[in-house]
User: What shape does this take?
Amino acid sequence: MREVGEEEEKTNPAAGPTYVERISGLINRLVERFLVVIGASICLILFAQVVCRSLGSSLGWSEEVSRHLLVTITFLGSTAAYKRADFIGLRGVGQWFGPNCEKAILVVLQLLTLTCFGALSWFGAIYTVKAWHHSTASLQIPMAVPFAVIPLATAILVLHTAADIVRTVRGKEL
Assistant: This one.
């Protein structure tokens, strides 16, 4: 069964997803798969730690790696959650003033969100660079490595928000 707008997309190429929307979708699919791999890795690492402790030894690095991976899941998971929920707008307020006002309110909210994510990405990158000379406790890797997820995730959020703005301006339902 065809979706409502599917026929229009086949006859009108401009109605199909834009480059930004396609890239946003592709990155989201990659992130979701990566999240599964990270989650499985945490499970395996913690299981190995339990087995080693029961045998009288310990994996000194396991807790640190698990903690960094959990932070990575949190940040990258937020990008997948944002993409799946799309943009939560104030549709109720906009409906009082008509569809054009509703669309304008939604675009303004999306632009504010884009600005916020852009600032987080910028300052996250600065923070990551500053952390390069500090190292983790057990792995002795630069703290910039685990901190790099901050600008990465927020840059992905910028991309998803830009795709939402394009979709809203083009008149597609979110």
